[in-house]
């Protein structure tokens, strides 16, 4: 309701300003907007003739926020597209869903099409190289891609050269990251009091609390307390980090030859020492007119990346005792910071240098797509695209005996892995356009072939003789420990499709398509399936009875229906493989035997199918001062590809089967307004709103599949749901009798313990009382961009919110219930004098996992509101820049992740966009940048 009121107020605000302002946009704005071309599958269409649910993001929006991964620039700007950053580590990707999760097996991420080539990734691209991004959401829009487009399609078009003067552009920025939102460790008196309280809770009636020398008698601990040797490990580990990006592009050409070339450099230093990402890129786009009826071109990019990472020590920093001497007199890290205690290793141990802990990945990617476009007769076009994506990488790991990863083994470990991936895509597209009177028809026929294979080889060993050799000399490891292995996997698809677009008077729009897909992953006799779609559009505003509609510029109704498929199982999931077993012998003579792989084949496995109905409405008012689109959809997915568990008696553990169904329903709203448009001042707003409801409708035997808290599949709930006990608070002193009447594992509850919901009201807490708690799916999400322009200054404010989702908070389980070692300072635990409902009473020699129903405390409401970024820019007046032979010059400053407000007070010191993980937290960021065109 609040969101609806906000949108309504914005519309009213825009209408009010539009009526008051004296500088109206010209009527041609309406015509220009409707005649803009939108890239769809294997073609383009005018915006006015679009019938599917397609959302376009232009280059100026992509460049509003300085980001390394262009996907992050789309966050909150596309209705129905849910994007969150996967972590705060250098080179971290983004998690993307379009219209939710509908499949259980395989990924639910969209298909990316870069300049016509499938299978790439936006993370390889420089944001400044992108011309536009189209997001295809409904089955009518994605059906031309068949099974590859089952989870939505993102089409990226990069920049091309234009005839005329050669243009040189520079885009760069430098920024600092810091002020990470992360729980502080418990220290000082707070740490002492927790241990004392844990001992007090363990006393028998009449016993008195011993002195501190007894309570803190752990090896070296009491002496460190007496000397005041408190250590905040989190602060010592986290450093302000930096990132910088520089790209130079050159574009131009003639009527026959057009070229665009760019060079990019990106560097990000992580918050942890020795973590960083360096990336170099070169792009060349070339278009050549061969004759008046033929042209050819190539789009290409080469990337080189070096990524250094390490084991994330944040969980250790929260749980290690906050005492000791972190550095010696020479500034070197003390591996054992508490004097006399060799059981507690310093969280800083990996900070000692790359010869202690190294995990380096270097790689190169080659993207190349060539095309030939032939127009033998007017209206008939044949286009052939052949593209390839090649990836080569090497991952080397060395961990010393005193590194965090090897502390318990006390031996070094080294490994090296080489991987090569090859992807090929060949499309042939025939298009025929015919316009005759009131009739316009476009016929598209195509074939598409894809092939992907990958091979890896790896070797490892322990007890490296010389640590400075890292992973470069495995011959120096212990001979009996050396292991090596190699793998190969490959898959291919073949597709044929046809599409017909028909328009009558530009008022009545129809589209029909059919695609046949064959996938090598599926079983013989089940590899092929057809995916039809149909859509219709009615431009209501063009009807005679609408001519007198006041302030209405455009009104279009869209209705679509289509079917998409999914074959996203492992490459050989329908086949039964064998694995060598070495536990066979004839007497004293060992022998090799073979057993089936844990997943057995299924010769009847076929396609998963998703049928989507979409109803959309596009509106424009007041000379395009207000533009809005609303889409409502319903997706039914059947024949789910499910990796089903099998009884132990079968000798195998699982099998892929077509069992079950899901249902996704949602509403998407996009609203663009020009609130004020005076000569020197302009204010525009963009709001996107999404609500999505996911449900599992049927499963094996029409029963829930109960696994772990995070892996259970529950009928009537989303795929990614949480299932465990429900916390109702903490038992209070005045509830002692009620608590005693409830037992778990034969033990009665008492004041200070976790109060759990007795779902079946039998006074016993057991597995029968576990229930659905929530899901990672938000009830709604919103993005709100405001842009202000005053003369040469521009100000952008962008807000995002995800509301109603639940997260699994790993750090919430770091409560040091026994008072031993460390824990987060924010934990508010119960005592008779502090009757909180947050955490149970501490108790000596007790771990958090010892509490009955402790799992219930790890799942909390993850709703949040975030001021994502604020950008202030200044563009040099053209009168000045022209004298300097500069076409355009803009300087700007951006602050990102500035303010986050979480619904739960337990997330006060944590950015919930991270999803609850305690590793690689997200940071605030300040960036200054420069854009120059010559």
- Main beta sheet, described? 22 strands, antiparallel, barrel
Mean pLDDT: 91
Q: Terminal Cα separation, in Å? A: 49 Å
Which structural category fits the helices and strands? mainly beta
Instruction: Give the percentage of residues in beta strands.
Output: over 45%
Overall 3D shape: globular
> Radius of gyration, Cα only, in angstroms?
31 Å
Helicity level: under 10%
How would you characterize this protein structure?
With 934 residues, the protein is mainly beta. It is 9% helix and 47% strand. The strands form ten sheets. The chain has a 22-stranded antiparallel β-barrel. A hairpin with a 2-residue loop joins strand 15 and strand 16 (380-399). The longest helix has 19 residues, at 2-20. The two termini are 49 Å apart. 41% of the residues are buried.
What brief labels describe this structure?
single chain; 934 residues; five-stranded mixed sheet; 47% strand; 11 helices; 22-stranded antiparallel barrel; disordered N terminus; mainly beta
């Amino acid at each position: 309701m609040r969101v609806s009121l906000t949108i309504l107020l914005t519309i009213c605000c825009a209408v009010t300003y539009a009526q008051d302002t004296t500088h109206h946009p010209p009527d041609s704005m309406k015509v220009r907007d409707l005649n803009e071309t939108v890239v769809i599958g294997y073609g383009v269409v005018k915006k006015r003739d679009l019938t599917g649910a397609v959302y376009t993001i232009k280059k100026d929006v992509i460049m509003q926020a300085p980001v390394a991964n262009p996907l992050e620039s789309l966050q909150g700007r596309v209705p129905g597209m849910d994007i969150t950053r996967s972590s705060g580590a250098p080179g971290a990707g983004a998690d993307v869903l379009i219209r939710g999760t509908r499949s259980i097996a395989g990924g639910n991420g969209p298909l990316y099409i870069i300049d016509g080539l499938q299978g790439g990734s936006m993370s390889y691209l420089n944001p400044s190289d992108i011309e536009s991004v189209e997001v295809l959401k409904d089955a009518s829009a994605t059906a031309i891609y068949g099974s590859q487009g089952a989870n939505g399609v993102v089409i990226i078009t990069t920049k091309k050269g234009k005839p005329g003067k050669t243009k040189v552009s520079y885009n760069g920025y430098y920024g600092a990251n810091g002020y990470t939102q992360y729980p502080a460790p418990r220290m000082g008196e707070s740490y002492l009091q927790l241990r004392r309280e844990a001992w007090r809770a363990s006393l028998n009636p009449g016993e008195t609390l011993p002195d501190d020398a007894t309570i803190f008698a752990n090896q070296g601990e009491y002496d460190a307390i007496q000397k005041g040797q408190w250590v905040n490990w989190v602060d010592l580990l986290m450093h302000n980090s930096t990132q910088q990006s520089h790209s130079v592009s050159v574009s131009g050409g003639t009527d026959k030859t057009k070229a665009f070339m760019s060079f990019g450099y990106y560097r990000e230093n992580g918050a942890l020492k020795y973590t960083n990402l360096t990336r170099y890129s070169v792009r060349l786009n070339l278009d050549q007119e061969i004759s008046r009826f033929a042209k050819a071109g190539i789009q290409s990019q080469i990337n080189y990346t070096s990524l250094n990472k390490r084991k994330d020590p944040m969980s250790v920093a929260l749980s290690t005792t906050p005492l000791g001497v972190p550095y010696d007199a020479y500034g070197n890290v003390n591996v054992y910071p508490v004097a006399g205690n060799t059981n507690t290793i310093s969280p800083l141990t990996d900070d000692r240098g790359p010869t202690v802990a190294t995990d380096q990945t270097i790689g190169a990617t080659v993207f190349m797509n060539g095309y030939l476009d032939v127009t033998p007769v007017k209206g008939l076009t044949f286009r052939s695209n052949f593209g390839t994506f090649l990836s080569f990488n090497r991952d080397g790991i060395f961990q010393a005996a005193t590194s965090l990863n090897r502390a318990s083994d006390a031996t070094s470990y080294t490994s090296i892995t080489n991987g090569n991936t090859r992807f090929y895509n060949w499309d042939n597209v025939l298009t025929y356009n015919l316009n005759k009177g009131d009739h316009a028809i476009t016929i598209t026929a195509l074939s598409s072939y894809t092939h992907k294979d990958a091979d890896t080889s790896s070797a490892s060993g322990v007890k490296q003789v010389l640590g400075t050799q890292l992973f470069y000399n495995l011959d120096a490891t212990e001979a009996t420990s050396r292991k090596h292995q190699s793998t190969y996997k490959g898959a291919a698809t073949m597709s044929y499709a046809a599409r017909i677009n028909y328009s009558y008077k530009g008022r009545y729009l129809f589209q029909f398509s059919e695609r046949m897909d064959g996938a090598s992953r599926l079983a013989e006799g089940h590899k092929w399936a057809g995916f039809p779609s149909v859509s219709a559009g009615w431009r209501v505003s063009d009807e005679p009875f609408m001519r007198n509609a006041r302030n209405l510029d455009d009104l279009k109704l869209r209705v679509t229906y289509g079917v998409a498929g999914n074959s996203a199982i492992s490459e050989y999931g329908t086949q039964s493989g064998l694995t060598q077993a070495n536990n066979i012998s004839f007497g004293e003579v060992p022998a090799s035997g073979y057993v089936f792989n844990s997943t057995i084949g299924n010769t009847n496995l076929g396609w998963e199918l998703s049928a989507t109905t979409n109803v959309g409405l596009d509106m424009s008012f007041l000379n395009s001062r207000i533009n809005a689109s609303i889409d409502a959809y319903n997706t039914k997915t059947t024949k789910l590809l499910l990796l089903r568990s099998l009884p132990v008696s079968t000798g195998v553990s699982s099998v892929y089967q077509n069992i079950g169904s899901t249902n996704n329903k949602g509403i998407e709203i996009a609203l663009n307004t020009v609130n004020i448009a005076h000569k020197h001042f302009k204010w525009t707003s963009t709001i996107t709103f999404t609500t999505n409801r996911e449900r599992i409708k049927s499963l094996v035997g029409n029963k829930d599949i109960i696994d772990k808290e995070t892996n259970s599949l529950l009928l009537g709930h989303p795929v990614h749901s949480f299932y465990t006990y429900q916390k109702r608070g903490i038992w209070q002193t005045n509830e002692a009798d009620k608590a005693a009447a409830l037992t778990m594992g034969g033990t009665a509850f008492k004041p200070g313990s976790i109060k759990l919901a007795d779902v079946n009201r039998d006074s016993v807490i057991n597995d029968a009382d576990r229930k659905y708690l929530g899901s990672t799916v938000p009830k709604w999400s919103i993005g709100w961009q405001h842009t202000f322009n005053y003369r040469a200054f521009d100000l952008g404010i962008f807000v995002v919110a995800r509301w109603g989702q639940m997260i699994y908070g790993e750090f919430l389980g770091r409560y040091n219930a026994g008072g031993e070692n460390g824990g987060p300072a924010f934990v508010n635990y119960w005592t008779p004098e502090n009757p909180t409902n947050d955490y149970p009473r501490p108790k000596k020699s007790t771990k958090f996992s010892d509490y009955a129903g402790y799992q219930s405390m790890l799942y909390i409401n993850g709703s949040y509101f975030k001021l994502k970024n604020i950008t202030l820019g200044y563009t040099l007046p053209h009168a000045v820049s022209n004298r300097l032979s500069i076409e355009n010059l803009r300087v700007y400053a951006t602050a990102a992740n500035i303010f986050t407000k979480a619904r739960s007070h337990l997330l006060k010191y944590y950015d919930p966009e991270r999803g609850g993980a305690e590793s690689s937290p997200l940071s605030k960021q300040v960036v200054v940048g420069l854009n120059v065109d010559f």
